[in-house]
Known about the structure:
Strand content: 15-25%
Distance between the termini: 29 Å
Bound molecules: 5'-O-[(R)-(carboxyoxy)(hydroxy)phosphoryl]adenosine, zinc ion
CATH superfamily of the largest domain: ATPase, nucleotide binding domain
Largest sheet: 5 strands, mixed
CATH architecture of the largest domain: 2-Layer Sandwich
Shape: globular
Radius of gyration: 20 Å
Amino acid sequence: MTLVLGIETSCDETGVGIVRDDVLLADAIASQVDEHARFGGVVPEVASRAHLEAMVPTVDRALAAAGVALSDVDAVAVTTGPGLAGALLVGVAAAKAYALSLGVPLVGVNHLAAHVAVDVLEHGPLPDPCVALLVSGGHSSLLLVPDITDVRPLGATVDDAAGEAFDKVARVLGLPFPGGPHIDRAAREGDPAAIAFPRGKADDGTYDFSFSGLKTAVARWVEARTDIPVNDVAASFQEAVVDVLVRKAVDACREHGAALLIGGGVAANSRLRAVAQERCDRHGIPLRVPRPGLCTDNGAMVAALGSQLFRRGVTTPLDALADPSLAIA
Ligand code: KG4
Ligand code: ZN
């Protein structure tokens, strides 16, 4: 059995996870959401500094929660990209220092692959093959995953990420940052068919997404009115996003005879979960969605992927660099 410590600092969460093989022992998070909320978005410099301050205490918290000592750790996994350069550097430098001082291997992991790999902690080995829909504030991608070491991009957003669209529309509606959960809540009281917002790239025959036209359409609709039915706008906007995401994900699953796995912060969205379940059931597609705490950025996902790679003999040299634009394959 191997004990892997995973460090995640690609955006605004300092996450430290500890897994023993595929079993989660601890998942400590230091969230910076409050520090960024007054700016209405993530400020890279603020993120880097906050990671620096939180790193060692969060590692200590994870070790205590797992009931293990630093000297028990067999490998240190870390997100090397994609993400914010300064934020990634803090995690990578810390992971190298821990690995070097403990005399154990470093395992660099791709953040997107880690969002997929985390599901093994909750639901066991990944379905084969599996299509992953990754939707968060920084990415919206459809991936074909025959194996966790073989992640192939099928499509991605050509402009805004889905979560970014949620956050920007929330701002237009006067809801706090991050807006996704607030839109989700408001939409429960609204009519998803109230306003016919555009569904970008819905029928273009690709697995790419586009959300900036939708975001602009919502902003124009709101600007043109004084009395805004916030719940109806939220529900109609959310429906447009969810409809395209699920439509393309289901198409990809049918083309590849695959199960669907949904990850990333937007996977916490209640309407996305419901519509995905309904349409997957209709087409006999197995659906897996990790619990919300494992969908948003966290250290457990890095430890989970690091552990899977380490057990297959994959390690990373100590002079490896962070790569803010690291590609998936
Ligand atoms: O994966 P994540 O924690 O960080 C990134 O890698 O971006 O995702 C954060 C994003 C934010 O845009 C947030 O608004 C969105 O996920 N989000 C949601 C919900 N919960 C979080 N979007 C829609 N509905 C939700 N319930
Ligand atoms: Zn993420």
